Amino acid sequence: MHVPLHATLAATSASGEAWFQCRRCGHRQSARVTGMGEGAQSFLNTAGTAQRRAATDAVKDIQRTIRVARCPRCARRNPGATLRWALPHLVVIAVFLAGGIIAGYLPTWLDINMSDSDRDICKWLLPLLCGGTALMIVPIVLWTRWHGIDRRIDWIAPLS
Ligand SMILES: [Zn+2]
Q1: How many Å lie between the centroid of ligand 1 and the Cα of residue 59?
Q2: 153 contacts: CB under 8 Å, gap ≥ 6
Q3: What is the CA radius of gyration of the chain?
Q4: I want to staple 50 with a disulfide (CB 3.0 to 4.6 A). Which of 39, 45, 62, 147 is the partner?
Q5: What b/e string do you get for 85-120 counting C-beta neighbours within 10 Å, with b at 16 or more?
Q6: Is pTM beyond 0.85 here?
């Protein structure tokens, strides 16, 4: 049986207006924000799923982006905003590491026919491979998304 295990990736952007509220100086201003979205689909999904997911993600990114905006008055970001923005990416590292640990211990838990030394190698090699891969890829993704984030925010002149 032939199983088509391909995946489709799509990326798109969306723009919209969003309100920014500075928690440091209380300044409020609206901005036109460009959100960047990515979507993926597997062979199980109907055609166009990746594009739809990317479009939905891009609209959500408008809010994600305005929350980490640098205040146009005091030039600071809201406290904790950067960490909250980065958190989902850091969770990915944790999930990969946990997945690697589980995979590494499976031969022991399931009592698979392997020598004890091979089982021990799995215990550290698989977490290292999965966690290490995530540790290499996630910072690149983080940097790519963070880079130029301030340029995606166009402040609209405040009403006085
Ligand atoms: Zn401010």
Answers
A1: 25
A2: 31, 32, 33, 65, 66, 69
A3: 21
A4: 39
A5: bbeebeeebeebbeebbebbeebeeeeeeeeeeebe
A6: no
Residue 158 CA to ligand 1 center (angstroms) comes to 13
Whole-number Å distance, alpha carbon 26 to ligand 1 midpoint, is 6
Strand partners, 132: none
Degrees to nearest 5, angle at CA 38 with 33 and 41: 150
Q: Ligand 1: distance of its center to the CA of 113 in Å?
A: 62
Q: Which residues contact residue 100 at a Cβ distance below 8 angstroms, ignoring those fewer than 6 apart?
A: 126, 127, 128, 129, 130, 131
Quick check: 97 and 139 in contact, CB under 8 A? Answer: no
Instruction: Kindly give the distance from the C-alpha atom of residue 29 to the centroid of ligand 1, in angstroms, as a whole number.
Output: 10
Q: pLDDT at position 3, please?
A: 59
Please report which confidence band the pLDDT of residue 17 belongs to, taking 50, 70 and 90 as the band edges. Answer: very high
Beta-strand relationship, 28-42 and 153-155: antiparallel
Has residue 43 got a pLDDT over 90?
no
